Amino acid sequence: MPDGGSRYFHQSIFTTDDGAPLWFEQRGEGQALPAVLCDGLGCDGFIWRYLWEPLTARRRVLHSNYRGHGKSGTATDPTRIGVDYTCDDLARLMDHAGLERAAIFGHSMGVQVALEFHRRYPARVAGLVLLCGSYGTPLDTWHDHSLLRLAFPRIKAFVERYPSMARLVTSKLLRTELAVEFGIRTELNPLLINHNDFHPYMEHLAKMHPLDFVRTLDSLKDHSALDHLAEVKVPALVVGGEIDRFTPVWLSQRMAELLPEAKYLFVPGGSHTAPLERPGLVNGEIEAFLDRLEASAPSWPVG
């Protein structure tokens, strides 16, 4: 099926052994190194808006929605959700798509997913593009303090006890223009972000069941790939936004310093959505990084 032209475009559902229907899409074609895109928590792909065009020009790109996110459902046991399941789901989706090896992209939570995926399946990772995310325990560094770590058990307990009430509140509140503007002005760079680029995130978050959100976040709060960074023996590009409040920029820089083969990109004025705020800068650096990866192996079998 064409995607606004002649490039390959396919969407489908893959059902896991434990009953989770996973929505995925494949776009693009060519013999360049394939790419796999891993979203952030509560996201269904909005962050890749300006990357689709350059990425799919010469390669296949695989993107999916995590369990409980977007068009994907949960397993028969809905508590089987979070980073551990996500990594194994990704391996199965790559098998299904016929991708033996790829450049793994991660944004926000997707950075933890990408690093954990490398720990479990190192032979399948040709390189890493890690955008505005932490290697672990994000509740300890959100807004450069640990208040969310202290508050989260109470938030989770409320959502688990009153899921219908929590869903009613979030579905109404997050769809308001006030919520969108508040998010832009307190978390992002209002001088750089396009309102229409951020709105899809809030719309998806409003549709997502709060149970799936807090259970996924619960799986992240104590997870860390810090002990694994020295073992990541593949090239990596780490992108950090100057005013990122979800993942403070010093954390991105530290991760780049601890990875054996990493290059660091500092995005002036960039927040947690730096790929949307300065797409020219970020996309240019990503394309140069992929060119360097492909120089040593110009043809990548895709099954």
Strand and helix map with partners:
Blueprint: E1 9-15, E2 21-27, E3 35-38, H1 52-55, E4 61-64, H2 83-97, E5 102-107, H3 109-120, E6 125-131, H4 147-161, H5 163-173, H6 177-187, H7 195-207, H8 210-221, E7 236-241, H9 249-258, E8 262-267, H10 274-277, H11 279-295
Parallel strand pairs: 3-4, 3-5, 5-6, 6-7, 7-8
Antiparallel strand pairs: 1-2, 2-4
Helix pairs in contact: 2-3, 4-5, 4-8, 6-7
Stretches with pLDDT under 50, minimum 5 residues: 1-5
Q: Strand fraction band?
A: 15-25%
Helix percent reads 40-55%
Principal-axis shape equals globular
Distance between the termini: 20 Å
Summarize this entry quickly.
The protein has 303 residues and is α/β, with parallel strands linked by helices. The protein has helices at 52-55, 83-97, 109-120, 147-161, 163-173, 177-187, 195-207, 210-221, 249-258, 274-277, 279-295, and strands at 9-15, 21-27, 35-38, 61-64, 102-107, 125-131, 236-241, 262-267. An eight-stranded mixed sheet has the order 1-2-4-3-5-6-7-8, with helices on both faces.
